[in-house]
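Chapter summary example: a protein plus 3-isopropylmalic acid.
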Amino acid sequence: MAHRIAVIAGDGIGTEVMPEGIRALEATAKRFNIDLEFTTFEFGSCDYYLEHGKMLPDNWFEQLKGFDALFYGAVGWPDKVPDHISLWGSLLQFRRQFDQYINLRPCRLMPGIKSPLAGRKPGDIDFYVVRENTEGEYSSVGGKMYEGTEREIVIQETVMSRIGVDRVLKYAFDLAQTRPRKKLTSATKSNGISITMPYWDERVAEMAKQYPEIAVDKFHIDILTANFVLHPDWFDVVVGSNLFGDILSDLGPACTGTIGIAPSANINPEGKFPSLFEPVHGSAPDIAGKGIANPIGQIWSGAMMLEHLGYKEAGDAMVDAIEAVLSEGDSQVLTRDVGGQGTTVSLGKAIAERI
Amino acid sequence: MAHRIAVIAGDGIGTEVMPEGIRALEATAKRFNIDLEFTTFEFGSCDYYLEHGKMLPDNWFEQLKGFDALFYGAVGWPDKVPDHISLWGSLLQFRRQFDQYINLRPCRLMPGIKSPLAGRKPGDIDFYVVRENTEGEYSSVGGKMYEGTEREIVIQETVMSRIGVDRVLKYAFDLAQTRPRKKLTSATKSNGISITMPYWDERVAEMAKQYPEIAVDKFHIDILTANFVLHPDWFDVVVGSNLFGDILSDLGPACTGTIGIAPSANINPEGKFPSLFEPVHGSAPDIAGKGIANPIGQIWSGAMMLEHLGYKEAGDAMVDAIEAVLSEGDSQVLTRDVGGQGTTVSLGKAIAERI
Ligand SMILES: CC(C)[C@H](C(=O)O)[C@@H](O)C(=O)O
Ligand SMILES: CC(C)[C@H](C(=O)O)[C@@H](O)C(=O)O
């Protein structure tokens, strides 16, 4: 039976790296005898917005809900549409309406990739950030008062629910359970943010009781970001609220030098709705149209998608191919950001061939 | 006329580094003929809390408001008092009640200090983080509902006022004005946090009109933390909300390897109330009582205090003395964290003598 994949390339370099993501997936599907069926959608991009006055058609939920997964490029083009409109109108809708309450991002030193940190080698850094993906600081509740006057105030509410917090914690503890080090770090700020964050800590302590074999620690977000730089080897599974997870899952790949190539998965663990797989990088208007974007983030996201669909071996083969091509370091193949003079297509093809 | 300084050592290593801060200040006062008068207070510590059931006496405001500055060590000892109680009961009260709406922290590569970043030398990194220090995400508005049930939710409001945002922006733009590069970077997250952060952006754009000679850019906080690691040389003055500023002003010093020695100033620019000067590091229960804490953060905070009181030359002399002692690298003098076998006192004395 075919796995039906909805493809939304989005904006900017999203449209350039997506074909390479698909190329790699098709090569993998062939090798492992997996039946993938891709359906492309034009919506979820700023150009669509300019034409239709909205990021998505009214019936997007109906159109997409039957798919087995969504494969997304990148969205956003601030000169065309303000970010908070393009993002809330697309990506953040998918995350919420499809209840993709887990955002999962690996932070790993890869061969051939230079880490900005001094003296770290592949193997030294290898952890996951698990981010709550549907509530918390990303709320739509709040507003403005005394508008346009000196006394103007704006208010936005952070909302955390026990259901929302517990389910992301459970996922993170379960993930830690599968890892050799069995360690979980919680990101908090309960010394400053005095209502939601102590609650987060409480729920972590409660959940920890059910996982006696997991070593649990916590750091306030300020010193935690410092420790990502100073002691990235301390971490195994790091769990955080929507905002803290967002920060840590950019900072983590930055520390491993992989911010331009890191993948991410937006997961609905129950499989009630499709999960969404996308590179961490954005649409990068500054290099869009030049054909030089690195497609590894898109390809690696494809690997996470296959793993999610039950093909762990196939996903691993994709990551192995990425690592192999990076290790070879052929400058005709690699894109500029990783020290070569190649193109999106040359790097994408090399990985697909390797698979 | 004497400058009256209120001294609050607080908890843990706060009580160990404070005497060295005072030693250095007294040496400087002697050399530059400045009249400093120190008055020590026991409150503002967890031990005070254990005895009195509160962090501060009821009349703390009256007791302190006439001082020219507050010189603070570090507060917090989670095993005695939960952090959100000890912090909200002391430090955060001072910041609010004394309207210290600016939190200023230098991020600078110092000689003799190893940066965790590859290939960076003193001079490569030198910027300030200006943090809003009285409102924003650190609010006390919110609460819990359906408590103790599956449906439990907690809500905390981020509150930004035009007055609050504009005044910190003005301070940051004014600071950028005094710097050779005249560059200001704003920390935002308007693509995800859809009410307060677009408002922050709006106010930055508005303020920028009054400073045509300042080059302004902005980054979302996630990629901004990444850029602190990847491109710390990009930054000159970075301004952020209370939470974002908090994160960046730990991450910045972490990138320069100075997290254990960085100073901070909590400033009421109008001088209506005393400003407060404290090291960035906390009370560090794990190394408290051993006499090995590095006193440079406390001493450097003293330098910022002198500068604030109008003695820029004297403040610079203190920083020069710190740099000189670090450059010499005498391992009998330096504390462990900077590669020596010395003590809090040996390092403090060496700096005071140098002054
Ligand atoms: C201790 C804590 C409440 C405080 C803060 O978050 O403001 C600290 O991290 C700081 O930066 O001074
Ligand atoms: C684009 C933005 C809204 C988004 C987020 O903050 O969630 C992005 O940074 C991410 O991490 O996927």
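Key point: Chain B touches chain A through 64 residues (CB under 8 Å).
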